[in-house]
Amino acid sequence: MAFAIQTEAALQEDVRTMVTALNAHLTPLSPPEFQFPMTAEQMSGADCMVFIVRDNSGAPVGMGCLKQHEGRIGEVKRMWSAPHLRGQGIGASVLAAIIDKAEALDLSELVLETGTSPEYAPAWSLYERAGFQPCGAVLDYPTSEHNRFYRKVLSA
Predict the structure, then answer these.
(1) How many CB atoms lie within 10 A of CB 104?
(2) Among 94, 153, 155, which Cα is nearest to 123's?
């Protein structure tokens, strides 16, 4: 399947639909106090870049967000691909685009928070294949048995 990735505005109905689908998928996997979702409005902030994957028909089939923090730190947020297309490289392509952009912005590292239930195993594999290493809590996230953290030092 061919697809295109580009940065787009978060405040689009089809992006909101993906955010809703992602939230619906993640909500039952961890207690609410250990989930850290972002709304489309939060993703539209000046500190965020949203990467949208569209198929040949223009339909959105994946997304990811790069959120910039002080200290040249970037955070990977809101990674999602359409369930019927998982395993076809969408997530890896979005993550590669986020890494490339982070390096172009001269960020020193990328961090991320994810869950610990077995349903997250494909995400862990994706991040580890891209060079992310498990680490302790990042940014202001709490340490818990429900959260797993990753870090990737960038060459920039």
Answers:
(1) 9
(2) 94
pLDDT digits (tens, 9 = 90+) for 52-104: 999 999 999 999 999 999 999 999 998 988 888 888 899 999 999 999 999 99
Torsions phi, psi of 144, nearest 5?
Answer: -160, 170
